[in-house]
Amino acid sequence: MICLDSLKFENLGFIKLDVEGAELSTLRGAQSTLDEHRPVVIAEAHGIGEHTPEELIDFMCERDYQPLVLNDDVLEYHGNCGAEIDVKRNLLFLPNRKRRAAT
């Protein structure tokens, strides 16, 4: 098993996760990638596996991402992080800020 951070992407704008309940651990292994590239992330979140959807949302909110819910082909905006969210299918995370400028 490898971490996404070890892949050293040059340019990354989108991540789609379908890892059967390991979404949170996968994203934990991509923290530097999330901070550097600020990709849009979509993840399955059925509440099955090592984490709850709320834990996944909290993790991404701590990294300044806005959660949206994609249920039955309807994209639902739920305001601020920490709001109660009914997740049946997928979570979409949009970065609230762009990629950091190179120093």
Automatic annotation (TrEMBL):
Point out the signal peptide segment. none
Q: Which GO terms describe its molecular function?
A: methyltransferase activity
Keyword Methyltransferase in record? yes
Q: Which UniProt keywords apply?
A: Methyltransferase, Transferase
Q: Where is the Methyltransferase FkbM domain?
A: 4-66
Query: A GO biological process this protein is involved in?
Result: methylation
Keyword Transferase among record annotations: yes
Q: What is the protein name for this chain?
A: Methyltransferase FkbM domain protein
